[in-house]
Amino acid sequence: MNLYRIEAETKDYGVVYVAVAAESEEKAFELAEVEVEKSFLRLPVIENLCITQKRSIKAGAAFVFAEDPVQTALENNNFQGK
Fold this sequence. Notes:
Elements: E1 2-10, E2 14-22, H1 25-38, E3 46-56, H2 69-75
Antiparallel strand pairs: 1-2, 1-3
């Protein structure tokens, strides 16, 4: 089982982030779509789903969420891209 960090681009709500535990990438996408749809009063139009991180589930597995980690780093002059 893996823990996925998925970025969902929506038409009306912008980018939202979803953490999903799933056995496969396909199942992670399915679960992420369902969770995004359940989280808003008006059904969002999902334009794109993208896995941004994947980790094996074990003790200590975690993600840090920011609106956009790269953009935040750029704004704070902390970007250490490769």
